Structures
1.
Amino acid sequence: MLYDIRPNHLGLLVELVRGGGLVILVGPSYSELDSWLTEFHKEIVTPPFNLNELSKRFEKRFLKNTIGREGTLYLDFNVEMVKGFEPPLPSNREVTETAGNLFPIPLYNLCVTNEQRMVLKILESLIQKRRWALVIKANRGRGKTALLGLASVALLTSRSRFGKFKDILVTSPEPENIQPLFDFAIRGLKALGKVPEIIKRENLIWELRLGNRRVFYRRTLAALEAKANIALVDEAAGIPIPLLLGYRKRFWRAVYSSTIHGYEGAGRGFSVRFLRRLREEFKEDLVEVEMKEPIRYSLGDPVEAWLYDVLLLDAEPAQLEEEEKKVNLEDCKYLSLDRDKLFLEDEERLRQIIGLYVLTHYRNTPDDLILIGDAPHHSIKAIISPQGKVIGALHLCYEGESLEAIEKLPKGHMIPSIILRYYPHLKAFGNLRGLRIVRIAVHPELWRKGIGSWALKKLREEERKLDWIGSGFGSSPELLRFWLKNDFYPIAVGPRRNRVSGEFSVVVVHPLSRKAEELVVEISKEFRLRFLESLHDSYFDMDKETAWLLLSKTFGKVKVEPKFSGSQRLRLESYLKGQVIYEGASDSIKALTKAHFLTTKEDRLNLDEKREKLLILKVLQGRKWESVSRLLDDKPSNLINLMKETIEKMAEYYI
């Protein structure tokens, strides 16, 4: 591998090495690291910082954990070989697990490990039940995606006492992820003497058809609406928990395959949060399997051990004793961590921090390690328990300070660049100095104890010299409540749903300086205006809870009068007198509703949550009464009366 390879690519390429093979790396010597630059280094440094401020903490730790390791050879630029130990011997694999009785024998013959055969046999027994779930957990390179391909063919060509599986859904964060699944499904069908019809999109397989039966792929959000007899969910750890919970309700029969560790750097969030729900609901109808036997090399292979070490793929949060779970925040420490010490001396603390990030965020990659370690504008804060363990961590990114630089190169300044894009007349925000919270993580055994809020309070106190603190995230109601509760104000919502999570991205800001407060008053007002005008279009299907929360937190003090044109006000009066129905005055009601939500919270008419959600669903999103009735769990006739009562109060207050 060449010296300029990035961590993400390293993880992918090394896993191609078979047992008995070597990893040969070419790069600078330790003494030359400080002056060594790659294209990736140039990408991660943003103004007002420069390349001279870049630190090579990741690379120094990488070399420290590579030189002399078994199964690796490191060559520096001067071609002075630094030799590791002799390469390991390839494994002698013997498959002894017998085939099952239901699925075709040729499919068992395509299995290359005993564990693959064992899982197929488990699936044979499960499909005789009406309702079940199978969870397959494994590190990378254990053949679980290939197994899903063989399993799809086994299901497609067999029948249970409940009938045939004609429509087998496959979903995964990206269609590229499941190409090996389709490859092995094709192999399995060929082994059975069957030739499927292959349907592709953009040169990727999306569907295999065999007569009136099919195995088909849908993206994670679209999968919720797919009609299928069974769902195969690959790389479930990379899918947000709300979507996984949706699959649990939607599909009575499902296989969830999850990487525990690997280059994705995800999996524990799936294990901790989703599996708990599955166990509670399915009980004895849930089977969990962990596949440990590698396909390409022997168990405990030194090359795999080295890869997991240098990329921290097996990092875990601290193990807490029962007594340690009774946390008193006054006894904890909030620390700004020295990254030199963290990467080169304090391996255990680094592992605990990365373990927390991986556990609480479904999207992590090894590239993040270079950002955390090397980038001059990134930093780490940690909450340390009295026992010295990491129970919370913040990953921060410095943004702003140079409007001119941001206008030329917005990358790396997420929040200022979003403000420039949506509110160009308020671009002075780009000159302010701020911190974006990239990640905030709390130990899973200490959730809902106020640790995250305490960390934000400490951060605000410490960074008083800055102008603002902000963050961006997928807009689940639970997460929104956390940020709003801590006095962060919504200033932007992405125009499209994330294609993996199905969530809209939200940006929130907490102003620290007077200048920031003045600008955030205007930005908050502009945000509400843009959001209100888009609820019938871009956000027509946004859930009522998220929409209501986004409109419930305002900054500043503004009361807005409704703007009526033509006969709108007269028709509103006719509606209130009962002379026209809602539909006859909907435009007038909308003008009044917009005035209500454009007004800041303190100056707004005090309406209860149900009334405001009714206004959002019916007036702003334009849903039908039947849909509003279902979403608010009330009869249409009751809601029609409630609407009129609400508009009467609003007219009296705002007009």
2.
Amino acid sequence: SETSFIAFSANCTHLGCPVRWMEGAELFLCPCHGGVYYKDGNVAAGPPPRPLFRYDVRIKNGEVKINSVVVPISTTL
């Protein structure tokens, strides 16, 4: 069986605060303004206008590769 991975940005799409994974609830929570995301990255509650940004993940030759882009620090989410 093949293992699959999903990678999300750790920043809330509301104002960019870092989100935390809550294992027991299986939700991502933003402590700044109460944003809540399901484990698939979609918004469950709160002010976030969009789902968490999802990175492209590939498994090649036994290595997990996450394709990300550089986002300037001045970019607003």
3.
Amino acid sequence: MSRQEDLAESQQSLTEHLRELRTRIIKALYGILIGAIICYNYVEQIMLYIRAPIERHLQGGGLVFTAPADKFIAYLKVAVFCGFIVATPWWLYQAWKFVAPGLYAKEKKYSLAFIFSGSVLYIAGVVFGYFLALPAAFDFLMMFGDGTDKPMITIDHYLSFFTTMLLVFGLAFELPLIIVILGMLGFVSQDFLRKNRRYMVVILAIASAILTPTPDAISMFTLLIPLYILFEISIFFVGFFEKKAEEPADERPRT
């Protein structure tokens, strides 16, 4: 095969991958949109839970909006945010369908395990952020200083902070899934992860410091400790799938 033919084949392969990625993203967005429409019907009830972490720090217990459309836009954001969470199994399924062609045939049977574990991990991250990280952050931020200044938090700013925190924590808890997929694709191995454990701890510590909005060490370790535990779990499962891959099986499909 000539160099020109090799180049044409690689370009065609890249184009096909990009087309497939676009298709999967669009399908994932459709699922999120449907979830958002459903959640919008319950947005008032959802807002009660969203206000709860900061409510005791606010005078009168309410958030402020400074423009006529602010509250409506905020409710739309809440619907999209909740739709993203509700549609977690769906967009994880789309992610799996994009990755699956690069896996062995016997590895593709783990699709349900991938979707289930990914959904559980993401929801666990959101729950962790809601019940532990957010209260700790607000206790520090809202009580910072001598107490002379009084908070008047706008609904827009609060929702941006709230949704960003929970989305980040949810995605951070997907760490084991990401590492296991990289292992199944052959990018990392159990030995590699073990040998580079110390560097990973540093990376996780830096990530925890960046992701937590407060500068105190307690908040950072609140995220670092579960992430490190999840990393250790990842090492185990990467080794598990390596042993499975050593068993007589089909060749990895070419893409």
